[in-house]
Design goal:
Elements: E1 3-4, E2 8-13, H1 17-28, E3 33-36, H2 53-58, E4 71-74, E5 82-83, H3 99-102, H4 112-115, H5 117-125, H6 143-157, H7 185-196, E6 202-203, E7 213-214, E8 220-221, H8 247-253, E9 257-260, E10 263-271, E11 274-282, E12 288-298, H9 302-311, E13 329-332, E14 339-343, E15 359-362, E16 381-386, H10 406-416, E17 420-427, E18 436-444, E19 450-455, H11 460-479, E20 484-488, E21 505-507, E22 524-525, E23 528-533, H12 548-567
Parallel strand pairs: 1-12, 2-3, 2-12, 3-9, 4-19, 12-23
Antiparallel strand pairs: 4-5, 6-15, 7-8, 10-11, 11-12, 13-21, 14-17, 14-20, 15-16, 16-17, 18-19, 22-23
Helix pairs in contact: 1-8, 1-12, 6-12, 7-11
């Protein structure tokens, strides 16, 4: 029997980027907030001298415990889904800060095309350009409407970038708050090659601070030290923007935020068309609590947002056969296959050093920046060279044909450890009627609740895009003048291993029509006015970028909507 606690005004489930931003904005406005986080507390001091590749990169110190809760996966409805027993394709964060602690810091705004993708595609190419079964839809908001929230998020996080406006991306109302990161020899080679080919390269917008910075909330952080321990690690300097060193301290300083760690929410309570609170388990003791609340915000990871709604019977579950329903619809991933590697016999680079968002990129083949009329795919990819810092356990580069073990392998990988550069793509992923999330009928977590089931595979659209873009990356790499170039130009069947990207999106998507979307542009559920679902679960498709910048902008818009709702309840428009 759950112990019933006194009612609270606002309850946030999940204290990552979305939950942290909302907590800061709501508490600054004078509202009392309780944040429930299923993992443990985290602080910068936890990462002092924690450059331990085995512990963090290989043994997943910051990630969710898959023996207690995981996801199941199948490529289609014709096969049985099986649980992900060990980490591979993506990494689900755990603890205060969530995935915002272990991210790399590459921070983009989605393109104007993304937010009106269906309308703009039809305007340029006609309805027949959208393949049957591709559930492409507009987001219910435009880039121009979202731009002020991008700006607010970037100033909070201290995003570093070039002062000049790049013509391939959405127009900015203000320059980045800090200048670009240092430019390495590899970046110079990439940018020079791209310019020679007529492209428009620029420094990757970075949440790794290029200089000391104090944000509008008074949070002061130090500049990046280029130690190369970003992805899968917390930042010991606080130079990488994450919720623990930016928004959560602001909320705590108000005295209006209470964070309860080790509090795993298992159910959302509701009656009469409104939510009334949640049930959660204290994970160390197993005690169950009922926490009533006037307003509930789901701000956890994509899979958990969808799963909580489905297990709580909130919203209409998506039916892939009829295409009706909304909860679980339009799951999308990221297409990272395709690229070109260069091996240098006569030039050495210090690629052991770097930062998660150190690099250069261009968008000439992203979104609809190029003509798709004769192509068998939509959208595209950000083409990039990054120098995140390659660590010794995982980094063993060798040209094709090199033995995978023994003396020759050792000698070759030592030779090329700092003589290897890579030009890669990060491609958009379009939604399909048969790609979705639902509850697994067989497998359950330690509390007896169904696991979330992922049904997904690469489509011809993705394979054609990789083939086309690999030609572009190869041309750039050849212009960078390595001794040898190797191209990756195909993808086949998606698998849950190896690691590819943690950029999962969709399942509780936003839009302007309640019949095709779960939430409005303020992340308010259409049919439950006091429930807001915030995060990348709201994306109707995934772009050719890392999702965090767009997630952050949407969280600031959601905060504005919630503040409006608290003054005058009802559906927001």
């Amino acid at each position: 029997m759950a112990t019933k606690l006194p009612k609270v005004p606002i309850l946030i489930v999940g204290m990552g980027w979305s939950g942290g931003i909302l907590a800061a904005e709501l508490t600054k406005a004078g509202h009392k907030v309780v944040g429930l986080e299923r993992g443990k507390s985290r602080k910068t001091e936890d990462y002092y001298m924690a450059h331990d590749e085995l512990r963090y990169s290989q043994r997943y110190e910051l990630m969710q415990d898959l023996s207690k809760e995981t996801v199941t996966y199948r490529s289609s409805e014709k096969v049985r889904a099986l649980p992900m027993r060990s980490y591979g394709s993506f990494l689900m964060g755990d603890g205060v800060g969530g995935a915002g602690v272990h991210w790399n810091g590459q921070n983009y705004r989605f393109l104007p095309y993304d937010f009106e993708i269906r309308t703009k595609t039809i305007e340029r190419y006609g309805k027949n350009k959208i393949p049957q079964g591709m559930t492409l839809q507009d987001w219910g908001i435009t880039y121009d409407q979202l731009e002020p929230y991008f700006d607010k998020y970037e100033k909070m996080a201290g995003i570093s970038g070039e002062k000049e406006q790049n013509e391939m991306v959405g127009k900015r109302s203000a320059a980045f708050p800090t200048g670009p990161m240092k430019k390495t020899p590899g970046m110079v080679l990439f940018e020079d090659a791209a310019k020679k080919l007529g492209y428009h390269p620029y420094a990757i917008p970075s949440a790794n601070l290029s200089e000391n910075y104090t944000n509008p909330d008074g949070i002061a952080r130090a500049a990046c030290q280029y130690c190369a321990f970003c992805e899968r690690y917390g930042c010991e300097y606080g130079a990488k923007a994450d919720p623990v060193v930016t928004v959560i301290p602001v909320a705590e300083k108000t005295g209006n935020l209470e964070i309860r760690t080790n509090s795993n929410v298992t159910k959302i309570l509701h009656t009469g068309g409104k939510v009334t609170g949640v049930v959660y388990v204290n994970t160390p003791t197993g005690e169950e609590f009922e926490q009533p609340a006037d307003l509930v915000i789901l701000a956890s990871y994509v899979f958990n947002n969808v799963r909580l709604l489905l297990t709580s019977n909130l919203g209409k579950p998506y039916d892939p056969k009829s295409g009706t329903g909304v909860i679980g619809k339009n799951y999308a991933y990221q297409i990272t296959g395709g690229g070109a590697a260069g091996f240098y016999d006569d030039q050495e680079f210090s690629i052991f050093a770097g930062a998660g968002a150190l690099g250069s990129c261009f968008d000439d083949f992203n979104g609809d920046n190029f003509d798709h009329g004769s192509l068998n795919f939509l959208h595209g990819a950000n083409i990039r060279f990054t120098q995140a810092g390659l660590r010794p356990i995982a980094h063993n580069p060798a040209p094709q044909g090199t033995p995978r073990w023994g003396k020759d392998f050792k000698q070759t990988t030592i030779k090329y450890a700092n003589r290897f550069l890579n030009v890669s793509t990060q491609g958009a992923n379009m939604p399909w009627q048969h790609h979705y999330l639902d509850l697994d009928p067989t497998y359950k977590d330690i509390y007896g609740l169904p696991l979330i089931r992922l049904t997904y595979d690469f489509e011809d659209q993705d394979k054609e895009m990789v083939k086309y873009l690999s030609e572009k990356t190869t041309a750039v790499m050849k212009e960078m003048k390595p001794t040898k170039v190797e191209t990756s130009n195909t993808i086949s069947t998606y698998n849950i291993v190896p690691y590819q990207s943690t950029h999962n999106t969709g399942g509780v998507i936003m839009g302007a029509d309640p019949s095709t979307s779960a939430v409005n542009s303020y992340m308010q559920m259409w049919d439950v006015e006091n429930l807001f679902v915030v995060g990348a679960s709201a994306f109707p498709h995934n772009s050719g970028y890392n999702p965090t910048g767009t997630l952050g902008a949407l969280a600031y818009r959601a905060a504005e909507g919630i503040l409006t709702y608290l003054k005058k309840s009802g559906p927001l428009v």
